[in-house]
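Course assignment 3, question 2. Fill in each field.
Student: A.L.
Task: Predict the tertiary structure for the chain below.
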Amino acid sequence: MDTEEYLFVYGTLRSQMNDPLHGLLEKHAVLVGTGSFQGKLYDLGRYPGAIPSHGKTDRVLGEIYRFSEPQRALEILDEYEGHRFKRKRVTIIQADGKSITSWIYLYVRSVTRRARIQAGDYVQYRNSF
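Answer field:
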């Protein structure tokens, strides 16, 4: 039996980005609110990638979704994210300051020659073009 699972999205799956796969979240999950992850965000071209950071001020902003039946939706998302990203459980700080454990897709390749999105907010970054 599935238990409730959370997913933190920070890039093209955020509601403001109008990605077709966002419909999967709307169908299988409920938007809980916004939050942040202790990490760094990079511009990878058509989408961003987040990596963990030890810097306390390094934040990636995004949305938190709660699945009641996560298995199938996460399988689809695993395929969508491909080999460049790995799904991992991390601590997310919600807007109210409380922390939860959530899935996130972290970038697993080198970010050496990638531009860092300093503000950690992909929606704001994309809207600045």
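Instructor remarks: The chain has a mean pLDDT of 94. The CA atoms of residues 43 and 115 lie 5 Å apart.
Grade: pending
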